Amino acid sequence: MVRFFVLALTVCFYLQPGFSFAQDVAKQLVGTWKLISSPTKFEGGDTIEAFGPNPKGRLVLTSDGHWIVVITRADRGPAKNSDEKAALLDSMLAYSGKYTIDGDRIINRVDISHTEIFTGALQTQTRFFSVEGDKLVLRTGLIASAFRPGQKLESILTWERER
Fold this sequence. Notes:
Elements: H1 2-15, H2 19-29, E1 31-37, E2 40-42, E3 47-48, E4 56-61, E5 66-72, H3 82-90, E6 92-102, E7 105-113, E8 124-132, E9 135-139, E10 143-144, E11 152-161
Antiparallel strand pairs: 1-4, 1-11, 2-3, 2-11, 4-5, 5-6, 6-7, 7-8, 8-9, 9-11, 10-11
């Protein structure tokens, strides 16, 4: 009878949908990641590097579901006036929130954003991801462009695990 109970309990845990997979994926994602590249491809063909050819960035994913990201251009310098301060703000992206995993999607509910761009309708950010060894690739999927009204784009951010 005890064997039957243990077997039944084991089967219940084993068959719980997504439980083991989600835990395994979360373990792969947790840590600190350094940005390697961030090209943005517009529908119609052209590609830009919004943060330059050598972007700087850090993504931190915690085991309790927090996400913090900061991305900047590598060619930034100290601001000497108001226009340069505004340019610094335009050359960065920073936000944080709580994330959940659903298959190959990581969904972030933003609670802080550097320009409030991710509040309101854009508060929930969904990214598609893949992990290969120490590389994490995040894709936006095809979304409306904030830079070019009426066009769609996909950003692909490649990160490398920091050790």
